[in-house]
Amino acid sequence: MRRFSLWMKAHPMVGDSLLAALIASLDLLLYISRVAVSPEGELEPEPWYITLPLVFGVVAPLVFRRKYPITAAYLTLGIGVAHSVLEIGIASMFTTCIALYTLVAYVSRRSALLFFAVNEVITLVQSPWQFPQQWITTLIVVNLSLAFSWALGEFVGARRAYHAELEQRLRLLETERGQQARIAVAEERARIARELHDVVAHAVSVMVVQADGAAYAVRTQPELAERAVKTIAGTGRDALTELRRLLGVLRSEDTGGERTPQPGTQSLSELAARVRAVGLPVQLDIVGNVDDLPAGVGLGIYRIVQEALTNSLKHAGPGTAATVRVERTGDRVELSIVDNGRRSSRSLVGVSGGNGLIGMRERALVFGGTLEAGPRSVGGWQVTASLPFGNI
C-alpha cells in the first residue's frame, strides 16, 4: 500500500485523471437517468452531441491542474458556465471547487482570491436569472462549498510547505554532517602526519648518530661498530613499518607547524593526574610492561585515552568517575576506558559519529586494530580498543 501511495505521489497526473473520470462518470450517470425517465427516451433537455463535449471538457483541465494550475482553473470556469447554464449535471460545481483548492494549495492566495472573485461575479449574475425562486440558497451553497475548498487548500498548502522545509533542512543537515565528518578526518590525519614526522625524525636521527659512530669504531672497536649497525637496522625496520601502516590512511602532506616531543604510555600517569585536577576522578591500571612499546603505538594509546577522558569530562556530568585499564597481552595491547556517567546524556555521541570518535578509530586503524565505543547496559560509557604490534 505504501509503495502504491509513493508511486501515485510520483505520478500526480494519474490520480488527477482518475478524479476527472470519476466526476465525468457521475455526470454521465445523471444524464443517462434523465434520458431513461424522459418521454419516449428522447434527449429533450440537452442533445448528446452537446452534453458529452461539455461533460468531458469541464473535467479535462483537472488532468493538468498541478502542472498548469491557473490555466486549468480558468478553463474549468469558462466551460463550467456553459455546463451549468444548460443544467447538464453537477460536474461544474465540483471542478470549480477543485480549481480553487488547487490555486490555494499550489499557487498563491492572490491567484485564488482573483479566481474566487471572478466566479462570484458569474454566480451573482447567473443565479437570479437561472434560479429566480431560490437564487439566494444557491448562492449560499456555492459559497459554502468554495469556503470549504479554500480551507482545505490552506491546510494542504501548509503541510506541503512544512514537509518541503523539513526535507530541505534534512538535506542541509546531511550535507553539513558529511562535510564535518570529512573535515574531522582530514584534520585528524594531518595531526597524525605531524606526529609521524616526529617519530620518523627521531628514528632517522638515531640511525645517523649510530652510523657516524660505527664509521669511527669499525677499525678500532669492531664490536661497538657491529652493535651500532644492528641498532641502525632495528630502528630502520621500525620506522619503515610505521610508514607502511600510516601512509595507507594519510593522504595529505604535513603542513608544518610547531613540533613538540610526543607523549606515550609513560605519560599516562601525568594525563590521569591532570584530568583528576579538573574534577574527574580517574583510576589508572597498567598491567604488563608497556614502556618498551614502539613509539607510534604508545602515542596512539595516549591519544585514545586522552580523547576518551576528554569526552567523559564533557558529556558524563557531575559525580562521574572513570577507570582506565591498559593491559599488554603478548603482542597486543588492550585498552578500556569506562565511566559511570548518565547514559541519557551520552547516547547521542555515538549516534552522531562525533569527531573524537572518528579520531580514535583512525588511530586504531593505523595499526590494524579495532575500537568500539558506546553506552553500557548498567549506565555510563565505555571505549575499548585492541592494538596489535607484534610485527612492528
TrEMBL record:
Record field: catalytic activity: ATP + protein L-histidine = ADP + protein N-phospho-L-histidine
Histidine kinase/HSP90-like ATPase domain location: 299-389
Chain ranges of the Signal transduction histidine kinase subgroup 3 dimerisation and phosphoacceptor domain: 188-253
GO cellular component: membrane
Main EC class the enzyme belongs to: transferase
Entries under Pfam families matching the protein: DUF7134, HATPase_c, HisKA_3
Any one GO molecular function term: phosphorelay sensor kinase activity
Entry's EC annotation: 2.7.13.3
Keywords in alphabetical order: ATP-binding, Kinase, Membrane, Nucleotide-binding, Phosphoprotein, Transferase, Transmembrane, Transmembrane helix, Two-component regulatory system
Record-linked Gene3D superfamilies: 1.20.5.1930, Histidine kinase-like ATPase, C-terminal domain
Coiled-coil ranges per UniProt: none
Transmembrane segments annotated in the record for this chain: 47-64, 85-107
InterPro entries according to UniProt: DUF7134 (IPR055558), HATPase_C_sf (IPR036890), HATPase_dom (IPR003594), Sensor_HK_TwoCompSys (IPR050482), Sig_transdc_His_kin_sub3_dim/P (IPR011712)
Protein name: histidine kinase
